[in-house]
Amino acid sequence: RNLPNKRHIGKQDPYCSVRLNGETRRTKAVKRGGQHPEWDEEVRFTILEEVVEEPPPPPPKDGEQEVVKEKEKEKGKRKIKGGTQMQLMCYADDPKDPDLIGETMVDLTEALTKGETDEWFTLMNKDKYCGEVFLELTFWSNV
User: Fold this and answer.
1) Going edge to edge, which strands form the sheet with 85-92?
2) What are phi and psi of 30, to 5 degrees?
3) pLDDT category of residue 57 using cuts at 50, 70 and 90
4) How wide is the angle at C-alpha 59 spanned by C-alphas 54 and 65, nearest 5°?
5) What is the mean pLDDT of residues 8-23?
C-alpha cells in the first residue's frame, strides 16, 4: 500500500522479490496494480538449523553459576543457517530495467518461535519511505 508510482503514464506493474540465505523467489507482477497492489501469493523457503558441535563445559567454579545459566539459555535458542533476516524488494516491472520501488529487511524470529506472524513492513529506498507491504509469515517444522 502507498507505493510511489514509478510510471509517468498509466499504472505500474509491481512485483516483489524475496531473498533468504542466498535463495531468491519472486511474485508475479500485478498488471496495473498501481500504488495499492494485492499479490495473495505463497513463497516458500527451506530453513535449516545450524548444527554446532560444542564440547561439554567444565564444571563451574564458585561465583560462576550466573554465567552458566546465561549460556544454558542461549543453548535453547535455535541457530538458523544463514540467519533470521529475509530481504524483500518491491519493483515496478519493466521489460528492459525494473525500477526498485523500495526494500525492507524482515526479522523471522517471531515466526520461527511462535509459528506465525502477520504484519505490515515499511519499504524504504535511499532512506525515504516508499510504502508498506503486508506479510503473513508461517513456519512449519519438520521435527
Assistant:
1) 23-26, 14-20, 85-92, 99-107, 116-125, 128-138
2) -90, 110
3) low
4) 100
5) 90
